[in-house]
Each structure stands twice: as structure tokens, then as C-alpha cells.
Design brief:
CATH class: Alpha Beta
Bound molecules: guanosine-5'-monophosphate
Largest sheet: 5 strands, antiparallel
Number of helices: 3
Number of domains: 1
Structural class: alpha+beta
Order of helices and strands: HEEEHHEE
Oligomer: single chain
Radius of gyration: 15 Å
Strand order of the largest sheet: 1-2-3-5-4
């Protein structure tokens, strides 16, 4: 595998309890906390507890149990925040920036859950 995980990245430090976070939810394999610079009324980051750099690393190397747990964690948060379009919520967006073109800042896999306002187009038109 081409990925070298940096154990000093900020989310690894949050997982070890070296840096505080505003915890939203925790499962056996995932931790969710509020983004320190929220870009929407709801802006939650969901991270696996395992050492995965990005989405493809996680998809290819995480165990089935980790993947199921992580996905269910996202579902739980969308439900608890009242965002589910199928249950009267106004919807949300999931973002997983990866690598240079994805402009990933923190090299520990994370999914942004954004909601609470109309989020505009997915990408700017060139
Ligand atoms: P990325 O660009 O890697 O997808 O997003 C990283 C996110 O992590 C950014 O939205 C940034 O605001 C957030 N972030 C960076 N450092 C911290 C931190 O120490 N605590 C929290 N809660 N969020 C952080």
C-alpha cells in the first residue's frame, strides 16, 4: 500500500485524547466531533479510529466491521441532527476530501457532514 500514516496528525492526537474535541458521537470504530471552523450550522467530522489516510485507503483496507460501524455512525448523526430528508429533515452533504486535488488538510480519513442551510452547488463551475 502506498500510504504512510502520520501518527502525529491532528485527528490522531484527538483520538489519543491529547487534544480536546467537541464530541458528537462515538462507536467502537468511529468518533464524531464538531469541526473547529464550521462552514454550516451543522458541521460534524466523522473519523475511523483506525489509522487510515483517506477514503480509498479505508475502503480497501478497513475490515467489514469498521466500514459498517463507520457508515452507521454517519446515519446515526444525520438522524440525531434531524437532517434526514426521508423523515422531514432538510438534507445534508457528505464530503471526503482526499489527496492534493481533493485539498485534504488532515491526513486521517474523515467525512464532513454539513447541513442546516442550503449548501449551494457541489462544485464551482469553471
Ligand atoms: P479537510 O480539508 O482535511 O477535509 O478538512 C479538515 C477539517 O478539519 C477542516 O474543516 C478543519 O476546520 C478541521 N480541523 C482542523 N483541525 C481541527 C481541530 O483541531 N479540531 C477540530 N475539531 N477540527 C479541526
Amino acid at each position: 500500500m502506498a500510504y504512510n500514516y502520520d501518527p502525529q496528525n491532528i485527528f490522531a492526537r484527538i483520538l489519543r485524547g491529547e487534544i480536546p474535541c467537541s464530541k458528537v458521537h462515538e462507536t467502537p470504530h468511529a468518533l464524531a466531533f464538531n469541526d473547529i471552523r464550521p462552514q454550516a450550522p451543522h458541521h460534524v467530522l466523522v473519523i475511523p479510529k483506525g489509522s487510515y489516510v483517506n477514503a480509498d485507503h479505508f475502503a480497501l483496507e478497513a475490515t467489514d466491521a469498521e466500514i459498517v460501524d463507520f457508515t452507521r455512525c454517519i446515519g446515526h448523526i444525520c438522524k440525531s441532527l434531524g437532517l434526514q430528508p426521508g423523515a422531514g429533515g432538510q438534507g445534508y452533504r457528505l464530503i471526503a476530501n482526499s489527496g492534493e486535488d481533493g485539498v485534504q488538510e488532515v491526513p486521517h480519513y474523515h467525512v464532513h457532514i454539513l447541513g442546516g442551510r442550503v449548501l449551494g452547488r457541489m462544485l464551482q463551475k469553471n
